[in-house]
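Readers of this paper often ask what the protein records in our data store actually look like. An entry from our holdings is shown next, in its original layout:
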Amino acid sequence: MVRASSRSAVSHLHVVATQPVTTSDAAPLIERAVEIEVLDGVVRCLAEGDGGVVVLDAPAGLGKTALLEHAALTAADAGCLVRRAAPGPLERHFPFGVVRALLEAPLREASDEERAQLLDGAAAPAGSLLLEGTVPGGDSTMLVAHGVLWLCSALAEQRPLALVIDDAQWADRPSLEVLAYLARRIDDLPLLIAVGARVDDPRAPSDLLSLLGGVRSATVLHPQRLTPRGAAQLIRRLAPDTSAAVCRDCHRAVGGNPWLLGELGRQIATHGPEALDRARDEAPPVSAIARNVIRWRLATLAPRDRAVAAALAVLCDGALPHVVAAVAGVAVDELAPARDALAAAGLLGPDGERLAHGLVAAAIEEDLTGTECERMHREAARALIAARADADLVACHLLQCRPQADPDVSGLLVQAAATAARRGAPHTAAAYLERALREHAPGDDRGRMLAQLATVAFDAGLPDSQRRLLDALPEVRDREGRIDLLTRLAALNVLGPGDADHAELFERELARQTDPEARLAVEAASLDALLMIPARNLERARRVAAIDLTATPDPVLERVFLAHRAWVGIELGTPDATTCAALALEALEGDLLLREAGRRAAYHLCVRTLVMTDRPDEAQRAIAAMRDEATARGSLRLRAGASWYAANLALRSGQVAEAENHARLALDLVDDGVNTFTGGAVMLLLYALIERGEFDEARELLAEQRLDGGLRSTRWEIGLRHARARLWLAEGDFDRAHAEACAAGALRDQQGRRNPTWTPWRSTAALALAHLGRREEAAALADAEVELAQRFGAPVPIAHALHARAVAEAQDAARVARCERALGVIADVPAVLQRVRLRLELGRALAHMGRRLEARAALRPALADADAVGAVLLAQRARRELAATGLRPRQAAIEGVAALTPRQRQVCELAAAGKGNRAIAQELFLSVKTVETHLAAGYRKLGVNARSDLAARLAS
């Protein structure tokens, strides 16, 4: 955690306090009935407890601010808490500035007790940002966003919350990402996000509208220019005697722009219809009309006042008085009379601090030459440096200036970049460093700057981090710096968005290094780089085996090589599971790899090894340590990885509800920017949905992720193909399941991954063939899988393969023997799903042999276990098999503990342990409303009315 400047970002934003919001007596808006109807509708829904997102997208002057004001006043009248912010152009580089403007005041105004309640649990990162100015470093934006979500949830519990943001095209990137995060989760919250933006502004983020307007619950409105009739109505409000012909001419002159029509109306009211002739020159563009209107007003002012207006246009809102004075070239004590003159001319807003409209600033800036505008920005930078202002505030102005080979400028920009990176604004840090590199100042350490830029991009998971690392490598000369860049570049192929084959680059680096220790460090990075190059898996295995661990003086590198040896065993099936697990556990000793988990693959390989060798206790401890490390670092990448591994472990252990919960969390996290685990999270969620019999939702997930058709070659292609095969197998589409399983197997074999613990495609294909009546082919595939699984020795893959072989078996007695043998293999591991499948097959075979009592003895625990873990599909089959033995099995319960769904039981158990709804929602990554729904259903099924009764009822 790092501390931001004592200068609050809020001071740079036009924040409107919530209390002064009162009903307006202003005249109704003209030709905005559709927009007002939509805004009134979402406010009504907000008052009733439903959230919404409204984006107003239109060019300047079309009334976005007036519509947002209407929404804010309507929400305030409905009893909502209204928070507003309106950033300016220079504020794009203040990380989380808009978020702080919106939410800092409610926290500071709360009592200590209220503040502690608002910031309880997952909301804590929001409190650190808003109260202390601290944010986690690196890829922390989504962790802050999650904290803001829970803060907004707590505020909205008191009364509905409306966040109103005008001029969002100037908002800082982290704030936009936080707002987008809220928008995607707004359905269950009484929260309204209303945004006004000029998306077509060339300086606006290119994906602004998709970030906010692209979410499912968003309504995007495009206010239009006024019609001639509307223009006449507006002008006659200001100049009642204006003729229809003059009104039409005004409409034509400004293209129906409401703000410019209002300005013309005021001119006509003062100077008469001839004011229109002064404004137009054969119907010039709207921007020319705006310039002329502003020029009229400025022309009546003194040079001092015009200079202050130009300074305000360049500096934007919130500039310090001495900076405005320095840029305008006037004394500080002359600012007050200059502001009075500008306000009298209608050029300043009602607060006397900001220009009256964005068009005013634009018109003034258009009349400034590029040289004059740059001079003013440089003067602002000098004044701020003299005042010892923050480096990032100075840097905002330097970004507007051309390079002049000034080492002081590049040094300040590098300093500002380091501050921005610590504050959780990697995009801003990258912009500062790029500008510093363009300065080309004598004495600049360009290698260091490029390395810093690459590191910022990597740590934050920016999409261009791979390019940054490659750009930096040729400029970095020192050995440690080059090895660090190579290590990060290699890790992108495993932990980030990298997808290129850089093997030749690593080979050249190996040839370049003569020092043995340096060569080992490069080799470690090279092995990471090769992990995602399937064609070179066998080569990687040979290189790992050739490394002499006794010649590795660095304990971190020694553990890296141990982790790679363990993983090679997982891929190839040799050495056996016991040896692989031992290697992984040895590598994890001392937590050295844990501290490297953000930039190396080794820790991740160890965790996956423990999962796939059926060492659940050790795997659980390693996952918990990784989750704690993610929290300590504020790393979204590590948190996503921990959730994915937890889902993998839960599914392998048969805990379907837990696996679904972790998979959804991993998918939610990676969907917000860290795309490393996306395919893996989808794969595990598919498996969980299949076990629950939720085939429609599984198909919807595939369609949503565009994985329902042809699959492009990705790191997750094998796993996704196998998951689709399992879906089609469960749905009874056996031909399709067989073909897809074989396709997954062909890819896996091409990559040299022969171990069935990786993807048991033969077992899946054998099950499909058995259901098609092709038992001999099924038996051959299953036998091959059994042999490979036994050679490796992990219990779950052996049981999986023996189950497929039992299904393919034509003789009941042989089938019984195989099932009993498989049950013995997994007797000491928590493989619930495999145990249920084997008991179902055993019970069926025994019943077919006429041994009904023994069949029931196998089927009853199968039904109980399936119900307990939420494996709906297996539970349904258990009931059918029990009925076939002549026993009437209990139906799926409609009341009592057995009637609870896995999620309902999870919620009830946490409530019984004394946790409140908000704490439960945070732990399970649900909304409070969803928790309330599950808890209400649990109360009804359990027949209780209070939390205090839950524990006893759940234990009965």
